[in-house]
Structure formats: C-alpha cells, structure tokens
C-alpha cells in the first residue's frame, strides 16, 4: 500500500491518523506545563524571591521573548539535521528538567527592616494577594499595614514585637537577603524551559502537517483538533497549577506543571511508532558524520541546545541590563533587511506579496505586546487590586488566566460560523481588516478595565467581572488576528523565502514579548514583602499606563484599517479571504485560537 493510501486509510483518532492522538496529548501536556508555570511566575518572582515589580516584569518579558526566538534555532536544526522526532524528544527532556527545577524553591528571599539600629524580618503569612504582611522580632510577630500614601507603617500589635504602633517610612530602611543557590536554580530552570520550547514547539506542529498529504481534506480539521489540545492544556493548568501554587505552596504548582510535561514526554516516546517515520532525520548518515573528533553532527545539535541554555540563562539573569535601544535596533535592522531583500531579489507580484508578508510580521507587534500583559502586569493587577471573591471563595489570580482558553472554546466556533456566513454573502472582512480589528480590540479591552478601576474609587478593589470583561474582549480580538497570522505570512512570502518569513515571524513575536515586559515594567509599584504599600498610587499607575497603551493600540488599529486596501492590493488576490479561521502546519499560538 502506498504512503498516500495508508495515510488516507488511517482514521483511528476521530477520523484522523492515530499519530495525531499522540501529538495531541504531547502538546496538551507541554502547554499544561508551560501555562501552569507561566501563571505563577510573576507572583513567584515578586513574593518568593522579592524581586522588584520592575525587574520581575523585565525578566518575564525576556523569558517569554527568548521562548519564541529560540524556536528559530530548534526548527532549523530539526529541518536540516535532527528531524522533528529527535528534536521534540530532546526538547521535552529539557522541559521536564526545567519544570521540575522550578519546584526547588528553598526558603525564599528575606526582607529585613532596620529601625533604631535593630533588624526585623518582614514576611507574608501565605502566597498571593490575600497574604498579609507581618513583622517578626525576637519577641514575636505582628501584622502590619500602611496608611494612605504609605507615609507610615502601622503595627497591629506593637507590644508583640516591641515597636511603636506607627513608624514613619522615612525612619526605617530595608534590604533583601537572597538564597543565591536557589536564585541560580531559578535562572537555570527558566533557561532549560526556553531551550526545551525552542526544540519542541515549532517542530511538533510540523509533524502534524506531515501526517497528511497536501490534498487530504482532513488537514485543516486535524490542526483544529491539535490546537484544541493546546487550549485544553492551557485551561486546565491555569486552574490546577494556579490553585495548588497559591493555596498549598509554589513547589506544588510548579511540580504539577513538571509532572504534566513528564506525561507529555512519555506519551511521545511511547507513540513514536504511530508517526510512521514522518519525523525522522533527513539523513541518518549525515547525522553520524564526524565534525570535531568524536563529536558527530547529532551531538553538535544537542550541544547547540546546551549553548542556548547558557545564553538564555545569562540574558534572563541580566535582563534589566539589556538596553531597550538594542532590542529596538534589532527590530529595525531586520525590517531594513527584509525590505532590502524584496527590492534586490524580488520583482513584480512576488515583491508586492512579500511586502504584505512583512506587513503582517510587523502588524502582530502591538497586539502581542498588549495581549501578553496577561501573564505579567495583568496577573499582578488581578492578584493585588481586584476583589477576587466569588461565591464566598477568594479565587487565586493565576486561575483567571484560564479565561482566555475557556472563551476560545465557547466563541471560536461562533466566530468561524460568522466568517462562513459573511463569506456566503460576499461580506467577509479581508485579512488586513481582521488584523486591524484585533489590534483595536486589544486596546479597547484595557480601556474597559480602566473604566472598572475608576468605578471603584482611588483605593478600592476593582470588581472581578471587569477581569472577565477584559479577557473576553482580548479573546475576541485574538480570534480576529491569531488564526490567520503566520498562515498569512507563509502564503504571501515566495516559496523560496518562506523559511526566512517564518524566522522573522518568530523573531518579532519574541520582540513583542520583550516589549510587553517593558510595558509591564511601567506598572511597577513599591512593595514590602512582595505586597503593595500604597494601593492608591499603584492603582493610579495602572490607570495611566493602561489608558495610554489602550488609546495607542486603538489608534494603530484605526490606521491599519485605513491602509487595509493598500495591503490587500499588495496581496493581489486575497487568498486568505474565505479561509475563515483555518490554520496550517506553520501556525503557531500565543496561544493559538483553536477554530473550525
């Protein structure tokens, strides 16, 4: 039986090849681990290691940026040498090590307060926004709080600690004492995850595409099932890892994320027989060729992963030292290269379609820079400044990150149906118009949240339903942009430079995440013990930053709408119009909206 026939006859998994089931569960557990860890990370950095809000935001931005940039390296090595099967296996092993490394937390950093020549420890009685601040002395401990403006620290039981009931903030100093070994374990664990995702993420999507012949009508629906696994993993991890990490301890949340990744690795190893050799190396002989003494090509590919770990660890450790102008100049430099290439190497329709591809690569930046606040500044805002009580239960902030995946399950089919209905009437928006709606929508979501902040007063807690609202608006915006994003780029770029276009997409995805860290840095507030000292000031900062980025994004969206006819003319034939929310083997999520 021919390969084409055997592929078409394999309907073991809901009418799809059995290999899709293996990839579905591998990706589901990988995303479970990634989003479970991500939901806890920013709160972990600020409360356990007592990094400042600003440093935590920049570290988070550098980490998420590197996750996407390193997929360029992992994808290239797999395509040319390793093959997707070996690359995914190696990446999964690195991810298991990284996620379990996050569970080694130590006792955490200590914040020591000096008053009248004596040192006292400031600590929390739990994790998350519901934890109370305590000051500890040789005599005992007492809960503390701060007055409006944080000009005074108020001690609930001064006799218990031998201190006055009120201490002016100008009369004491604080310093952070870190457990250096566990801080380095944190950096190493993040670097392992970066390298692991780099080897796994793009390559597992490529294997999905390899399961189908190009003419196979099941192709798009197969990717839809695959991306449902992504969102299922994201949804479950945000709930369970987020709850365990906040309520029972960081190590339990991170440990569950690591266990999920281990399950994904075991599923992939067990199920490789169902991939039918489609993910094997291009040439086993080439892999065994000697490069340097006893080191062959395959070993060098794995050593490249070790190099990624080292570089990533160095960058995450020193994220606050990376100058913003360097990142900006990198983005400008790549843009100049792409445009220059189009003028020197391409002509006619190829050139104009390449311009359209470059436009879509750049158009994603404002969207992801704001959308990715979900794991950083928006997560901290939800933790500290939202009344999270629902049905008598104070819901941990990371749990709310499940809303994005939940809304995708609910609304993606409706959006897909809407595009089909509009297409039948000849009224479906073009891809450039959808992009403009996505960018406009992400800005609108932040303005809706600002309205909720203002409604609760200068120092009041924002009502929880505004968190539901901002996630809903952002998900609707995502459904306008994400499903056709990279698909548009790969279809517009000439066949001989599709790889370069894909690399550019990943690079600018990474730059978008770094920019998200810069925006989140602007929302930083003063803390003691990882908790706010001045709620009103912190809230005012959020209002200012979110208002500004909201209006800027909406203005960019309007500008994109105005120039959409020009972009459509560059595309020559809007090949994506009518494709609705279909994705192909190059589609990548942030997370990807699973659609029909």
Task: Supply the key terms.
Growth Hormone, Chain: A, 7-stranded antiparallel sheet, 65% helix, two-stranded antiparallel sheet, 596 residues, alpha+beta, disordered C terminus
Descriptive account of the structure:
It is a single chain. With 596 residues, the protein is of the alpha+beta class. It folds into 3 domains: 18-108 and 179-280 and 295-322, MFS general substrate transporter like domains (Growth Hormone, Chain: A); 110-177, no CATH class; 323-596, Up-down Bundle (Growth Hormone, Chain: A), CATH 1.20.1250.20. 65% of the residues lie in helices and 9% in strands. The chain has helices spanning 3-9, 18-47, 53-82, 84-102, 158-161, 180-210, 219-247, 250-271, 284-287, 297-317, 324-345, 348-371, 377-385, 402-424, 431-455, 465-481, 485-492, 498-521, 535-571, and strands at 110-115, 118-124, 133-136, 141-146, 152-155, 166-168, 173-177, 290-292, 295-296, 386-387, 389-390, 393-394, 462-463, 527-528, 531-532. It has a 7-stranded antiparallel beta sheet with strand order 6-5-4-3-2-1-7. A two-stranded antiparallel ribbon has the order 8-9. It has a two-stranded parallel sheet with strand order 10-13. The two termini are 31 Å apart.
């Amino acid at each position: 039986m021919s390969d084409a026939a055997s592929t078409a006859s394999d309907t073991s998994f809901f009418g799809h090849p059995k290999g899709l089931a293996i990839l579905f569960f591998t990706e589901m557990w990988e995303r479970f681990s990634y989003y479970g860890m991500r939901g806890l990370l920013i709160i972990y950095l600020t409360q356990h290691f007592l990094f400042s809000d600003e440093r935590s935001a920049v570290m988070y931005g550098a980490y998420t940026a590197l996750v996407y940039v390193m997929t360029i390296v992992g994808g290239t090595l797999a395509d040319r040498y390793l093959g997707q099967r070996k690359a995914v296996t190696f990446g999964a092993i690195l991810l298991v090590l990284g996620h379990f490394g996050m569970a080694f937390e130590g006792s955490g950093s200590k914040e020591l307060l000096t008053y009248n020549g004596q040192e006292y420890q400031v600590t929390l009685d739990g994790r998350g926004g519901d934890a109370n601040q305590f000051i500890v002395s040789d005599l005992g401990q007492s809960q503390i709080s701060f007055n409006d403006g944080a000009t005074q620290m108020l001690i609930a039981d001064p006799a218990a600690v031998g201190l006055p009931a009120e201490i002016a903030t100008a009369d004491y100093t604080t310093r952070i004492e870190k457990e250096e070994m566990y801080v380095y374990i944190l950096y190493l664990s993040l670097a392992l995850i970066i390298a692991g995702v780099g080897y796994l993420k793009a390559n597992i999507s490529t294997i999905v595409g390899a399961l189908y012949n190009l003419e196979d009508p099941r192709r798009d629906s197969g990717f839809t099932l695959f991306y449902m696994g992504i969102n299922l993993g994201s949804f479950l991890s945000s709930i369970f890892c987020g709850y365990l990490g906040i309520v029972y301890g960081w190590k339990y949340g991170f440990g569950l994320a690591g266990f999920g990744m281990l399950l994904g690795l075991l599923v992939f190893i067990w199920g490789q027989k169902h991939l039918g050799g489609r993910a094997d190396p291009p040439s086993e002989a080439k892999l065994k060729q000697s490069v340097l003494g006893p080191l062959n090509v395959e070993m060098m590919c794995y050593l490249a992963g070790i190099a990624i770990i080292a570089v990533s660890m160095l960058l995450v450790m020193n994220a606050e030292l990376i100058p913003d102008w360097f990142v900006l100049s990198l983005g400008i430099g790549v843009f100049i290269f792409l445009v220059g290439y189009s003028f020197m190497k391409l002509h006619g329709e190829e050139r104009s379609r390449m311009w359209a591809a470059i436009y879509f690569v750049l158009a994603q930046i404002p969207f992801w820079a704001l959308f990715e606040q979900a794991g950083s500044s928006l997560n901290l805002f939800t933790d500290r400044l939202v009344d999270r009580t629902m049905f008598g239960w104070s819901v941990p902030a990371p749990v709310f990150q499940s809303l994005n995946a939940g809304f995708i399950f609910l609304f993606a089919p409706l959006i897909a149906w809407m595009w089909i209905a509009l297409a039948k009437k000849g009224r479906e928006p073009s891809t450039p118009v959808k992009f403009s709606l996505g960018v406009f929508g992400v800005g609108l979501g932040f303005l809706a949240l600002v309205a909720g902040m203002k409604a609760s007063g200068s120092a009041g807690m924002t009502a929880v339903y505004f968190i539901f609202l901002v996630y809903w608006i952002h998900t609707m915006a995502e459904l306008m942009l994400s499903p056709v994003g990279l698909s548009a780029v790969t279809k517009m770029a000439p066949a001989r430079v599709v790889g370069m276009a894909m690399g550019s997409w990943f690079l600018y995805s990474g730059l978008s995440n770094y920019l998200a860290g810069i925006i989140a840095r602007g929302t930083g507030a003063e803390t003691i013990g990882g908790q706010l000292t001045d709620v009103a000031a912190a809230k005012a900062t959020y209002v200012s930053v979110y208002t500004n980025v909201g209006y800027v994004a909406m203005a960019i969206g309007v500008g994109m709408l105005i120039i959409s006819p020009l972009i459509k003319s560059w595309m020559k034939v809007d090949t994506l119009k009518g494709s609705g929310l279909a994705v192909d083997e190059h589609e990548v999520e942030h997370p990807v909206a699973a659609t029909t």
